[in-house]
Structures are given as C-alpha cells and as structure tokens.
TrEMBL record:
Signal peptide: none annotated. This is Phospholipase/carboxylesterase. One of its GO terms (molecular function) is hydrolase activity. The keyword Hydrolase applies. Residues 19-210 form the Phospholipase/carboxylesterase/thioesterase domain. Transmembrane segments: none annotated. Belongs to the AB hydrolase superfamily. AB hydrolase 2 family. The keyword Ion transport does not apply. Pfam families: Abhydrolase_2 (PF02230). InterPro entries: AB_hydrolase_fold (IPR029058), LYPA1-2/EST-like (IPR050565), PLipase/COase/thioEstase (IPR003140). Keywords: Hydrolase.
Length: 224
C-alpha cells in the first residue's frame, strides 16, 4: 500500500526487526522538503528510526503542509487535512517498522513545529515527545480542537529572539500552553533568528536522546 505522503526512512545501522526502536517523525518548514530534515536529524540515525515527511502542497521550490491567509492564520481546510493525514501516516508507519509505541517523537521546524505541537495535542498516548522549533499554535487549535495530550508528554520548545517571522513571545506562549498539560516542558529561547543555531542543534539532540533513555549527561544551556 502506497503512503499518502512522500517520505524517506533512515534505519539504525544494526536495525533488527525483532527489537523496538524510538522513532522521530521529522516535519519541514514551508518551502522546504524532507531532505532538509534528514540532514538535521542525521546525528540521531544511530539510535532512532528517522522518518522525514514531505508536505503535500507545492510551495515555491519546496513544499508545505498547509497554506496561510496571513502570518499566523492558516487556511483551516488545508490545516485540518494535514493534521488528519499525518495522524494516519504515523499509525501506518508504526505498523510497518519496529517502532516502540512508547517512544514516538515528532520534530519540526517552523511549519513543521506547528504540526508537531498540534499532533501532540490531539494524538494522546501515541506521541511521547516533540521538538518544536520556531512555531506557533493557531487559535482554532487551542479553542476548537479536542485536546488530549499524553500526560507524560515531553515537549522541547525553542524560539529565537530575533525571529523575523514569529516574535519570541509566541515561543513563550507555546511553552506556557503545554505546561497546562505536562510537567515535562523544556523551553529554550536563544539568540538568533528563524533558523537552527549550532547550540540549538546540540540541545534538541540531547533532549531526544535523554527522553528516549539513550543518555543521561546534561549539557549546558537547557532550562525547563
């Protein structure tokens, strides 16, 4: 059966279908593609199954998961369709590979972060944790969706203080919103714009490895 989403999968070098592995579903930003997220997640391939997903909508030289009417105001029909489609995709891929159902993560940048946060809020125990870099939560998600996040959800939320698209306050709002549902929120404001800095690159990797019980060392610069 062909998936509804174009995607690429990277398996650990010694992948054994009789074991179970943590998985990261990686979602790109508007105008980018799955290759961008594969490069970003590459250091984690030794321990995680990486599933990089391409948005279904052509956007410039890349793709998108939804289009917008204005900044912060997605087209609702396209947004809803991607949320529903990605839920089905995650379930589908989880039955295809040796994925540990208690260690499913969604990581995204910008539009991908928006999707990651939304999926965590609606998919319950199916999602253990998220990495949401430089995104926001639409008002209709907060006010109209049925929210049922995993009580043990771990959320890594980051935002740059010089982000030209989404102000830093949105990152703070994201972290505070998730704190209503879980005690495991790591908020990382950083000095930079709408991009992933080298320090942030190291921090989200550490978060994922630690939360999946793959390491215990604590790096500098993380705050919860």
């Amino acid at each position: 059966m062909q998936s509804a989403y174009i995607h690429e999968v990277r398996l650990p070098a010694h992948y054994n279908a009789d074991q179970q592995y943590p998985v990261i579903f990686a979602l790109h930003g508007m105008g980018s593609d799955e290759q961008d997220m594969l490069r970003l997640m590459e250091p984690l391939q030794s321990d995680f199954i990486i599933v990089a997903v391409r948005g279904p909508i052509a956007q410039g030289s890349g793709y998108a998961f939804f289009q917008i009417q204005s900044i912060g105001n997605p087209i609702r029909e396209l947004y809803d369709a991607s949320v529903q489609g990605l839920q089905q995709f995650i379930v589908e891929l989880s039955s295809k590979y040796a994925i540990d159902p208690s260690r499913r993560y969604v990581a995204g940048f910008s539009q991908g972060a928006i999707m990651a946060m939304t999926l965590a809020l609606v998919m319950g125990d199916a999602i253990k944790g998220i990495v949401a870099m430089s995104g926001y939560l639409p008002h209709f998600v907060k006010n109209e969706y049925t929210l049922q996040p995993n009580p043990a959800l771990s959320a890594f939320v980051s935002h740059g203080d010089q982000d030209h698209l989404f102000p830093l306050q949105l990152g703070e709002d994201n972290a505070n919103f998730f704190r209503q549902y879980t005690e495991h929120v790591t908020y990382v404001p950083y000095h930079g714009g709408h991009h992933v800095t080298p320090e942030l690159y190291q921090q989200f990797q550490h978060f994922l490895r630690t939360d999946a019980n793959l390491m215990t060392e604590e790096p500098k610069g993380l705050n919860s």
